[in-house]
Design a protein that fits this description.
Largest sheet: 6 strands, mixed
Strand content: 15-25%
GO molecular function, one term: succinyl-diaminopimelate desuccinylase activity
Number of domains: 2
InterPro entries: ArgE/DapE, Bact_exopeptidase_dim_dom, Peptidase_M20, Peptidase_M20_dimer, Peptidase_M20A
CATH superfamily of the largest domain: Zn peptidases
Number of helices: 10
Structural class: alpha/beta
Keywords: Cobalt, Hydrolase, Metal-binding, Zinc
EC number: 3.5.1.18
Protein name: Succinyl-diaminopimelate desuccinylase
Order of helices and strands: HHHEEEEEHEHEEEHEEHEEHEHEEH
Distance between the termini: 17 Å
Radius of gyration: 24 Å
CATH class of the largest domain: Alpha Beta
Length: 426
């Protein structure tokens, strides 16, 4: 029996352990926002990985965006050194999950097993991937105890809200520096036979239109900021959205619709604030003097961030030219540049070889429509040998009745273990 056969067999024998581990992780409701139960899940992982022979470190991202005494941003980094020197392979998974939402037919934090699937918020995105990486590492250590180099596993905070209390903080502290870590695999749910090389860029901005408050019975004495915002939206519909639809990328972005530039209107707020649920009165009669819109612009590697911003400002200036009394402010909320690892990078080659062995076919190379923590490893850590690979179907992320397939986790764990053997087992 070859080492590859032994690794695959060892993971298969740990099926029940993989299921139980995934269920335990799902049952810790690490909702973000606000960032609940991060310490609880880090303590759970700490106990598990210490038992498996890892040295562990719990790191609070003090002072990072989102960190507070009520909701501290805890992360765990575990390291298992090999018998001799060599490269370090790091598996990074985020521990936070998004809000539950409506429409569930199963308990979002029950970890129910049904028809070969484990259900729950975060099952797909990405506690199933975290569990698979742990099982893969443990199986590799059991079969190849004399490996060279090191294996690291991290559980990090806040990926769903930008990752600043997680991977960004750790990268700033040197945890992803190229002299410490050489290969990074992020088990995001991009489908088990795909290798994700990177992601599109993102630019978030808030646009505010200005008006003048007046009595609602005499709107002619004021200036309605909401109407001004409607003119902005009309100009976007007529000029910006059609222009974005014409921009196409050579990046292998999935799904197909994300191969073009996109813009999402994330929210609009105008007029007086919404009252508490127990308020039973009517709103006051006022002309709104402010209206705010948050936009989420996703852009391609062929685009320049300055041009992306100028397109939006051009929309606002065209409205100003044709609309009396129009005034606005715009401020940037967030930016991430596109990134894409080369197909011949070492971690890509090793995972591709493992995918071919497990599935009998070459992987599909893709790029994510949205960003994930590769952005911080690339830009802050200066580590470009990084990919996303893990179990789960991307389209299920953030949906009701989210699930991860058990067989998908087993096969993905086998791929991860074989990649470890290729990178460290020589």
């Amino acid at each position: 029996m070859t080492i590859s056969d032994k690794l695959r067999a060892k993971i298969e024998t740990r099926r029940d352990d993989l299921i139980a581990l995934t269920q335990d992780l799902i049952r810790i409701p690490t909702l973000n926002p606000p960032g609940a139960n991060y310490r609880e899940i880090c303590d759970y992982l700490d106990h598990r990985l210490l038992h498996s022979g890892f040295e562990t470190e719990l790191v609070r991202a003090e002072g990072a965006i989102g960190d507070s005494d009520k909701y501290p941003r805890w992360n765990i980094v575990a390291r298992k050194a090999g018998k001799t020197s060599g490269d370090c392979v790091h598996f990074n998974s985020h521990i936070d999950v998004v809000e539950v939402g409506h429409g569930w037919t199963t308990d979002p934090f029950g970890g129910q097993v049904k028809d070969g699937k484990i259900y729950g918020r975060g099952a797909c995105d990405m506690k199933g991937g975290l569990a698979a990486s742990i099982i893969a590492a443990e199986a590799f250590i059991a079969v190849c105890p004399d490996f060279a180099g090191a294996i690291e596993i991290s559980g990090t905070a806040d990926e769903e809200s930008g990752g600043f209390g997680g991977v960004a903080y750790l990268a700033e502290k040197g945890y992803f520096s190229p002299d410490r870590v050489q290969h990074v695999i992020i088990p995001e749910p991009l489908n088990k036979d795909r290798i994700c090389l990177g992601h599109r860029g993102v630019w978030w901005a808030e646009i505010e239109t200005k008006g003048e408050i007046a009595h609602g019975s005499m709107p002619f004495l004021g200036d309605c900021a909401v109407r001004h915002m409607s003119a902005v939206m009309r100009e976007m519909e007529e000029s910006l959205f059609p222009a974005l639809a014409q921009k196409r990328t050579e990046m292998p972005v999935v799904p197909e619709g994300a191969k073009q530039s996109t813009l999402n209107i994330n929210s609009i707020h105008g007029g007086e604030p919404e009252q508490e649920d127990d308020y039973t009165g009517l709103p006051s009669a006022c002309v709104p003097d402010r209206c705010r819109m948050v936009i989420d612009r996703r852009f391609l590697i062929e685009e320049n961030i300055d041009d992306v911003q100028d397109e939006v400002r051009s929309v606002l200036e065209r409205v100003r030219e044709g609309r009396s009394g129009f005034d606005y402010d715009i401020r940037e909320l967030h930016r991430v540049l596109p990134t894409m690892t080369e197909q011949d990078a070492p971690v890509v080659s090793s995972v591709a070889k493992a995918v071919d062995e497990v599935f009998g076919r070459a992987p599909q190379y893709v790029v994510s429509p949205g960003t994930y923590d590769q952005k911080h490893i690339d830009r802050i850590g200066r580590l470009h040998n990084c990919i996303a690979y893990g179990p789960g179907i991307l389209d299920l992320a953030h949906k009701p009745d989210e699930y991860v397939g058990i067989d998908d986790m087993i096969e993905s764990a086998q791929v991860m273990a074989l990649a470890l053997q290729d990178l460290l087992g020589k």
